[in-house]
Amino acid sequence: MRLWGTPRAAGAWGIAFVVLLLVSAAMISLPTALDSGVAIAAFYSAHAQLIVIQQIVGIAALAAFVTFALSLPPRRSLRIALWAFVACELITNLVPLIIVAANLSPDAAHTLTLVEDVADSALFLSVGFFVSAVTLSEPLWLRIASYVVAAACGIRAIASPLGTTALDQVAPLLFVAFVLVLSVKLVVGSRQAVAAAPTR
After folding, report:
1. C-beta of residue 127 within 8 angstroms of C-beta of residue 115
2. pLDDT per residue as tens digits for the range 100-124
3. Per residue in 154-197, pLDDT tens?
4. Residue 157 vs residues 7, 66, 127, 153, 193: alpha-carbon distances, Å
5. Which conformational region is residue 164 in: left (phi greater than 0), alpha (psi within -120 to 50 degrees), or beta?
6. How far apart are alpha carbons 126 and 11 in whole angstroms?
7. CB atoms < 10 A from the CB of 59, how many?
8. Are the CB atoms for 109 and 99 separated by under 8 Å?
């Protein structure tokens, strides 16, 4: 099996992304700018090692996601959404590492956490764009599912910085479920195509 560039490879990398993302998310929940600078600085000081490990796993998940996306049929809108996702995700990975490494003051930690929150909101907007773009040639049921996920992510991106947290857990889970369903579909579809191919 080719490691990338085929539907089967895309499905495998998509599943790897889901696993790594769930592992990363289960490790620890980072504070937001709604918390005080003192609380943020204390949190990072108390959980520095775990936060570093979480961000490393997150970067590994990002690498799997990039390989997943690049293994899909090329489409301009998909590439734009992918690189927007990458840029935002890298910011959300690097900011916690900077806070840990620099041992910042509460005010500085709060400022960087605000930057991370903005990047996180932009990340969910890019997720909405990505899931909409990735299903343009997929069956209707999957396109409808992508629009539901995109709507949830878009609302979450706008509402979360305003203190409305109703979709903070739901939107990421919908995205993970969507990627998993799409990935399984790609793997199963490629196997069925191989099985249906005439033998010589």
Report:
1. no
2. 999 899 999 999 999 999 999 999 9
3. 999 999 888 888 888 899 999 999 999 999 999 998 665 554 55
4. 30, 21, 10, 6, 38
5. beta
6. 20
7. 17
8. yes
- In this prediction, residue 18 carries a pLDDT of 98
Q: Where are the domains of the chain?
A: 7-191
User: 198: which DSSP letter?
Assistant: P
* Residues ≥6 apart with Cβ < 8 Å to 106: 36, 37, 38, 40, 41
Instruction: Give the residue ranges of DSSP H helices in the chain.
Output: 7-27, 37-46, 48-70, 76-102, 106-134, 140-159, 170-196
Rounded-to-integer distance, Cα 81 and Cα 129, Å: 6
CA angle 79, 12, 77 (to 5 degrees): 15
Give the global pTM. Answer: 0.89
